Amino acid sequence: GETVSIPFWVDDWKPASFYDKIVANYKAGLHTLCLLDIKTKEQTVENLMRGRPIYEPPRFMTVAQALVQLREIEKDRGEGIAADGTEVVGVARLGRDDQAVVFGTCAEVAEADL
C-alpha cells in the first residue's frame, strides 16, 4: 500500500491525514509502511526570530509514540486499525549493529525498545 509519514504532534498542530491512508490501505487488504518523524537541526521559534543559529537536540520518534498518536485518532474515528490486538511489525535502527525488528500486537510492540 501507500507509504505514510507520521509526524511529531505539537500542541496546536495534530495532523491525521496519515491515519486516513492507513485505513484505505487496510480496507484494500494492503500493508502500510509508516515512516516515523525525526527532528534534526530544529530551532525554537525564539532562536529563529532572533537569527540565532542555536539548534535543539535531535529527536527520533519511537514506535510507542507513533502508536499513541494513532490511538488518539482512533478514539475519534473508530476504524479499529490500532486496537491492542492488531498485529504490527516495528523496526528501529535498521542497518546498525543494534537494529531491532519486533512482531506482535500493538500492545506488545508499544512496550519494545523501538
TrEMBL record:
Gene Ontology MF terms: methyltransferase activity
Domain of life: Eukaryota
InterPro entries: 4pyrrol_Methylase_sf, 4pyrrole_Mease_sub2, Dphthn_synthase
Matches recorded under SUPFAM superfamilies: Tetrapyrrole methylase
Gene Ontology biological process terms in this record: protein histidyl modification to diphthamide
Signal peptide: none
PANTHER family on file: DIPHTHINE METHYL ESTER SYNTHASE, DIPHTHINE SYNTHASE
Name assigned to this protein: Diphthine synthase
